[in-house]
Amino acid sequence: MEPPGPVHGEAEPFSKALRSLVNNRLYSDVRFVVGQERQEVFAHRCLLACRCNFFQRLLGPEPGPGVPGPVVLSTVPAEAFLAVLEFLYTNSVKLHRHSVLEVLTAAVEYGLEDLRELCLEFAVKVLDVELVCEALQVAVTFGLGPLQERCIAFIEAHSQEALRTRGFLELSAPALLLLLRSDKLCVDEADLVLAARSWARVGAAVLDRPVVEVAAPVVRELRLALLAPAELSALEEQNRREPLIPVRRSWRRGNATLCEEEMRPGVPRAAAGGAPCPGSITAFWTCPSSD
């Protein structure tokens, strides 16, 4: 005789019924106000609490007397929050390219490991030039190593296009440092210097700080030794008008007198196959001693 065990009905009708309760005022006993748009979302305490420790702590064991006020979650966009609820109610979720990183962020913050893995898998599948820098920033912020590696590899293969995106300009300094330390960026070093300057300008405007101060954490990873004499002269002139790279002495044509600790060794950046990228070995210049 077979030992007694559970028997299961069809999963789809059960999932469909629970999905109908997502953001449904019927029988709801908790109300959220989410996102900058302050959208009202209805949910059910018992389901949230049993599915997610974050909500169990947030909502407490039972509501207080009277009509409870809304729970305000202003940092999570409404679309991402509804995706989280859909997963909690049905153990499945419909993800979209334009919002997957917001859902991933919520999954990490709420400790939903299964949802996080679903988002990571989806994000890798839809990764493109416009999304990759935003994905890299999320990966760096939350320490998502595999996603970080995939993003860097993608940018290495599409360097020129990625440097022109809004996501690149919004990278944090730690995320940008990861890129600049790569030996496989297929881009001319002069273009990389220009991209770093654009990045620093955006940061300076947001933080109300000088460009040179914002750029300080990342300029050491620029490989100025790869610049040709003409490119170095142009950089010298631009640096006079808008300081980006700290110097201790004036520059001379063809001879960067940038102090050695500010210089990055002139290692060529190579494409994924190992061959140097065009323009990445234009010239080698070494920083003279400061004596």
Question: Can you walk me through this structure?
Answer:
The chain is mainly α. It has a domain at 155-245. 50% of the residues lie in helices and 4% in strands. It contains 14 helices and 3 strands. It has a 3-stranded mixed sheet. β1 and β2 form a beta hairpin. α2 (45-51) crosses α3 (53-59). The N and C termini lie far apart (91 Å). Mean pLDDT is 86; it is low at 249-262 and 279-291. Residues 28-97 form the BTB domain. Pfam families: BACK, BTB. InterPro entries: BACK, BTB/POZ_dom, BTBD19, SKP1/BTB/POZ_sf. This is BTB domain containing 19. It comes from Pipistrellus kuhlii (Kuhl's pipistrelle).
Poorly predicted regions are 249-262, 279-291
Shape: elongated
Spatial strand order of the main sheet: 2-1-3
Secondary structure: helix percent = 40-55%
Main sheet summary = 3 strands, mixed
Q: What structural class results from the helix and strand content?
A: mainly alpha
Strand content: under 5%
SSE string, helix = H, strand = E?
HEEHHEHHHHHHHHHHH
The CA-CA distance between the termini, in Å, is 91 Å
Tell me the number of helical segments per DSSP (H or I, 4 or more residues long).
Answer: 14
Task: State mean pLDDT (0 to 100 scale).
Answer: 86
Number of strands: 3
Q: How large, in whole angstroms, is the Cα Rg?
A: 26 Å
Organism: Pipistrellus kuhlii
Domain BTB: 28-97
Pfam families: BACK (PF07707), BTB (PF00651)
Protein name: BTB domain containing 19
